[in-house]
């Protein structure tokens, strides 16, 4: 079972944060190669595992750097806003230990400069998240 | 308002009644003003779209009467 474990000294303060990479989806990669184009490199991001997010999110800058084209448009709601239209993209999430998950992510700005990606319940629905607070450690398995 | 996929979204809305009758529960692929196919899963629809249309914007829409809201409980989102 592919998995990775992360230990952070201040897990309670900053949350389950991961240094990982976001890449174009497999089908997009194949379409780019078929047209003779150059496939962009994966973009390194700091991501937060967020059980309060229905789906995963990437910042607009990440989508721009990967040259992503939208495959959907959805409405999202937050504590301070309702029915905000956002684009949806096909992406691959490359976790530590080269654990790769393909999913669709919503494009939306994230607060602060610490996080460029949220790992939502769409990804968690495929795996097991173990949060061991008393030793500041979490494990995600698929 | 988002400009990309606006035409595709309008097509989905205008054809919604017939789509519900024919493809309820499926994922349809729409490009420009054409409905190109219906699939059992979102990933199948997206993969087919990239293969047939290429690396251009296209709309994959779940044909359902009520779309479940995409909620974000935490305050990390800047919208």
What is the total number of structural domains of chain A?
A: 1
Largest sheet, strands/sense/barrel of chain A: 6 strands, mixed, barrel
Helix content of chain A: 10-25%
Strand pairing plus helix content of chain A: what structural class? Answer: alpha+beta
Q: Name the helicity range of chain B.
A: 25-40%
Task: Work out the oligomeric state of the chains in this entry.
Answer: heterodimer
In the sheet with the most strands of chain A, the strands line up as: 2-3-8-4-7-6
What distance lies between the first and last C-alpha atoms of chain A, to the nearest angstrom? Answer: 6 Å
In the CATH hierarchy, the third-tier topology of chain A is known as Cathepsin D, subunit A, domain 1
Average pLDDT level of chain B: 93
Indicate how many domains the architecture of chain B comprises. 1
The SSE string of chain B, one letter per element, is HHEEHEE
Radius of gyration of chain B (Å): 14 Å
Beta strand count of chain A: 10
What shape does the CA trace of chain A take? globular
Structural description of this entry:
The complex is a heterodimer of chains A (142) and B (79). Chain A is an alpha+beta fold. Chain A has one domain (3-141): Acid Proteases (Cathepsin D, subunit A, domain 1). Chain A is built from 4 helices and 10 strands; from the N terminus they run E-H-E-H-E-E-H-E-E-E-E-H-E-E. In chain A, the strands form 2 sheets. Chain A has a 6-stranded mixed beta barrel with strand order 2-3-8-4-7-6. In chain A, strands 1-10-9 form a 3-stranded antiparallel sheet, with no helix packed on it. In chain A, strand 5 (72-77) and strand 6 (84-95) form a beta hairpin. The model of chain A has no long low-confidence stretch (mean pLDDT 95). With 79 residues, chain B is an alpha+beta fold. Chain B has one domain. In chain B, 37% of the residues lie in helices and 22% in strands. Chain B has a 3-stranded antiparallel sheet, with helices on both faces. Chain B starts with 5 loop residues before the first helix and ends in an 8-residue tail after the last strand. In chain B, 28% of the residues are buried. Classes of the chains: A alpha+beta (142), B alpha+beta (79). The interface between A and B is large, with 44 and 32 residues. Strand 5 of chain A pairs parallel with strand 4 of chain B.
């Amino acid at each position: 079972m592919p998995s990775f474990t992360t230990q952070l000294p201040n897990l309670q303060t900053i949350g389950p944060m991961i240094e990982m990479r976001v890449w174009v989806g497999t089908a997009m990669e194949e379409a780019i190669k078929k047209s003779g184009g150059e496939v962009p490199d994966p973009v390194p991001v700091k991501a937060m595992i967020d059980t309060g997010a229905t789906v995963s999110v990437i910042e607009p800058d990440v989508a721009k750097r990967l040259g992503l084209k939208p495959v959907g448009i959805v409405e999202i709601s937050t504590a301070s806003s309702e029915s905000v239209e956002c684009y949806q993209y096909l992406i691959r999430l490359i976790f530590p230990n080269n654990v790769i998950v393909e999913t669709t992510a919503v494009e939306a700005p994230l607060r602060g400069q610490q996080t460029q990606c949220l790992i939502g319940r769409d990804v968690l629905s495929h795996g097991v998240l173990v949060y061991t607070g008393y030793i500041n450690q979490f494990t995600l398995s698929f | 308002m988002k400009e990309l996929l606006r035409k595709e979204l309008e097509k989905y809305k205008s054809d919604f009644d017939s789509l519900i009758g024919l493809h309820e529960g499926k994922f349809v692929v729409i490009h420009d003003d054409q409905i190109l196919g219906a699939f059992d899963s979102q990933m199948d629809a997206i993969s087919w779209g990239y293969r047939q249309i290429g690396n251009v914007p296209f709309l994959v829409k779940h044909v359902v009467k009520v779309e479940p809201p995409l909620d974000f409980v935490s305050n990390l989102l800047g919208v």
